Amino acid sequence: AREKKLGDRGWVGDVRLGWRLRGWDRHDSHLETTMTFVQTARGARFVSARDDFGQPAPLWLLARVHVRQGPRALVLTAGDVAPAPYVGVADQAVVDVRKVLPRWRGRLVVEVPGDADQLGRVLDQAPDSYRGIAAVTTTVDGSQTAGSPTHIFLNRPVYDPLGPRGSQIVMSHEATHVATGAARSQMPTWLLEGFADFVALDHVDLPVSVTASQILAQVRKDGPPATLPGADDFNPRNQALGASYEAAWLACRLLGQRYGEQRLIAFYRAADRTGSTAGPFRSVLGTSEQAFTRQWRSYLRQLAG
Q: Fewer C-beta within 10 Å: the chain N or C terminus?
């Protein structure tokens, strides 16, 4: 239809964009996207960037966005999605993170695409890549460059049905990723994700039988996993994805109980610096990953009853 409308006057071109959200992003994001143009008597005119030619595009080029600012968070929503319901949750997430990481003074930018297709286009992924994921924290342009703006992207089909408590836990989890620069970290995934849940659940008044119901049911049926969760266990297509997150959280919860919150934080930061837990287990905690894994497996059996 577009080809018929534009005729031989229309053309597409790859355009290198650079932008930042003033007052919120400290550095520019850079992205190459494909735009449609039309030749007019006065020269080329931009038509749209919404057509998918296999290139990602920022949300603000894909739809009309609504912007709402809170004391600690900025929310951008696409199309008819109102930003107001997300602002308070994002603001509270900053408060939650600062209870555990008081030296972090950052703020959040939350982007809310209208649907899974838009989310996939923004993040340069297939629409079903985040089928079971409520939110993703990543650099805006997908780069690993230090200082690249990091935003939280919500997957509305999964996030919106969670309800007040569940949506707050997810937002606080993602805010922890922002606070610790997790989008660029090479540490083992179990620690990265488990620590984010440790922060998000730190002040949530729910029993472990609820917050870890999937992994505990798995332990009752098959016994505890032989190893801490690996990167493949956190693949969005993993049918036991929820149990993997819970197992990682319980590992960090056990570390916090045995060594204290401050040593857990020190362990996390050391693993972030080195990209490994092997050295930090020895230097920070005075143990080994093998010894801790045995303790964690015993802990799971105890909690499962």
A: N
